[in-house]
Every structure is written in structure tokens, then in C-alpha cells.
Amino acid sequence: MSEKNQEGKRTARERLAQERERQRSQDRRRRTMIVAAAVVCVLGLAAVIGVIAANTKSDGKKSTAGPLLAPTGAEGKDNLAIPVGAADAPSTLTVWEDFRCPACAMFENNFRTTLHDLENSGQIRVEYHLATLIDRNLGGSGSLHAANAAGCAQDAGKFLAYHDVLYGNQPKETDDAFAKNSRLIELAGKVPGLDTGAFRSCVEDGKHDSWVAKSNKAFEKAAFSGTPTVQLNGESIFPKRGDEEISPANLKKWVAEANKGKQPGTVPPSQPGAATPSAPSSPPAGAPAEDGAPKHGHAPGTAPKKAPAAVHPSKAVPAHEAP
User: Domain span at residue 92?
Assistant: First the structure.
């Protein structure tokens, strides 16, 4: 073989080796780029998840997995009841409510004066329990957020006044406005001295979310038919007691019968029931129609100019029954 041919073959082998090395280099660069792109995607996904989590914490459904912190002064089993009235009152009214529930607003807005009169005269002690029935049935988180805010108001010693403001300004049932902490803080401005830094932090941090969740579990475990559930000394009185329909007059009569021969309780000077929030500019959501009837968790119709003498029970199936 001539020297010229040998040189040609060597040159060809070198070119082939160089080409193979170039190909390997390209493969290495391609793998590096793929790995880098994958890392960027993971980091980007983590950033997106972080943004979603941050937004959810402030505006969406709050987590209820935090430590269970009951509001100041909460009483009863597992500290799930918020008491209003004299501790030694001869009768106890137990009320299970949901701040998004129109029937609850109907009950509170029409019986508010009667309840406060009975509380302030030492006739009854009201124990409020909070549920999130509407959140489960319609979606959203307004029941949870409002209940947490009410717990925050209890920490400040202003539960009842804020409770009344929430029901006096309840949005439509399908409007989850109470899910917005900004709205709950805005309404706190209607209660003198409530809108403080401590209250805002409590609301925004969901301090009592786990407590609300536990209260709702107790509501579900009790197998109540819906909200509101109202009991006088353990006996159901809403929407009727026996054959008598609930009304402000009947409620006073029933309490008087239960308290016969008993001394009224001693109401503390700072009884919060004495403070009455300003009335809403328009009829409250959930007020009954003149010929309408409240249901557990739903009360359709427009509000009458005057509260009805009696609340007529509906024959329809409740719109928001408990399971």
C-alpha cells in the first residue's frame, strides 16, 4: 500500500474520531439543557404553588389544620359554646347558627330585642354554637371566616355586638362575601372599639379556624336537622314547641314558665347585650315574607315592615338540611 493511501486512511479515521467527539459533546450539552430546563420547570411550579398557597391563606379557604384555640371565655364541652348573659340565669337557650344561613338571620333579626331583654333581665343565658353548613352545601368559606371573626370579637369582649352586626348585614345566600377578611374587618368598624390591630391579625390569621371546624363536627355529630337549631333547656323550640309556633311573645311565655318560682340571674354591668348595632339600610337577608316561612338554612321572600307575630314553619323540605 502506498504511503499516500495510508495517509488518506489516517486522515479519515481522525475526521471520524473528531466527528464522534463532536457528537458526544452535543449529546452532553443536550442532556445538560434538558436537566436545566427540568429544574427551571420544577422551580417555576414551586413558585406557582407558593403564590396559590399565599393567596389561599389570605383570600381563599383557610386551613383548619392549625392548633385549636378557643375564643376567650368559651365554655361547655370542648369549649365550643360562647355564652351571653348571666352565668346563674335559671334557663339556658342553646343556639346553633351559621352566619351565611338566611333562616338564622331571620331568627336573629326578628328575635333580637326579645333575646336581649331576656338576657339583660337575667332570665336566660344564651350559648351560641357556630356551624359551617352553608359552606359545605353551596361551597365557599364565608361561614368559616365569619365564625372565626366572631371568635376574634369574643376575644375582645364584643362578640354579641359583632354577631348582631353580621346578621344585620348578611349578604345573599349565594354571595360568599363573608369569605373576604376585608369585609369582616370593615363590618367590625360598626362595633365601637373592635377594629384594632389584634382583631385584624386574629381575622387574617384564621386564629380560631380549627375551633370552628371542631364546633361544626359537633354539630354534624349531634345530627340536628339544620340551622338554626334553638333549644330551651335542651328542648327544641324552633320552629315550634309542641303545637305552638315560635314568636317573641311565645318565647317570653315559655321562658317565664320554665323560670316559675326561680330567681333571675345576676347580669354583669358590662353585659354586651345592652349594645345594639345600627340597623342596616335595607331589609336584612333572610327576613321572612309576610306569608313566608323560615326553613332550616333557608328563608326565601322579602322582609315585612314589621316582624311577624309568629314564625310559621314551612312544610317544604329545608334547603340546607344537615346530613
Answer: 77-274
